[in-house]
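Give me the 3D structure for Benzoate 1,2-dioxygenase electron transfer component.
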Amino acid sequence: MRGRLPWRAARLREVRVETATARTLVFEVPGWPGHLAGQHVDVRLTAGDGYTAQRSYSLAAPPDGELVALTVETVPDGEVSPYLTEVMEPGDLVEIRGPVGGWFVWRPASRAPVLLVGGGSGIVPLMAMIRERRRVGSRAPFRLVYSLRDPESRYYAEELRRPDPGLDVTYLYTRAAPDGVSRPAGRVTLADLAEGGWPTGFEADCYVCGPTGFVEAAADLLLALGHAPERVRTERFGPTGG
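Predicted structure for Benzoate 1,2-dioxygenase electron transfer component (242 residues):
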């Protein structure tokens, strides 16, 4: 099915700064069919000599007509991400194909508690789920456990500070924790997920996204806590050259 999806022209409409190295790009995509929170797209660049490069990026926001939002982290010496985050200006064009994926998605009809576990830029599809929950007025309770290097690496910092009934957010820092935080910097632990997540008896749907090593470790910890394997959904990414 992936190969049958058409490439569509996407015109950059807006750029928002998330961190020193990450930007949210909002594109207008005529004919966009809509998508589910948690899906991703392929982005293709074509040079003047015909050379093409493409990468996959998670959708950062729920469906909104013909608008598609991506949050992109700059990969040094990458082929695609530096162009998207440092060169593109509103009005410029790329090609987008999607949406892709049907397993790592949250559907508003679900009423089960949700645990989101994100590592670094793995927060992006999870944020789409949080925004979709808010958009549709869902009463499903959400908990987010967000692991990142340091406070300056936070995506969507202002938005996640705002009161959002039914959403609890826990930050875990791996390299440098801010002043006043009792948990020392370090990798996610069984205790972190037990405290920031849901008791297994609540039968929560768990979504884990981030670098491969983080996802494997976090998923193993969730299983060790007693979460049912069929309720633990994972999305991982590795080095792609950007």
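The chain has five helices and eleven strands. Let me know if you want a second pass.
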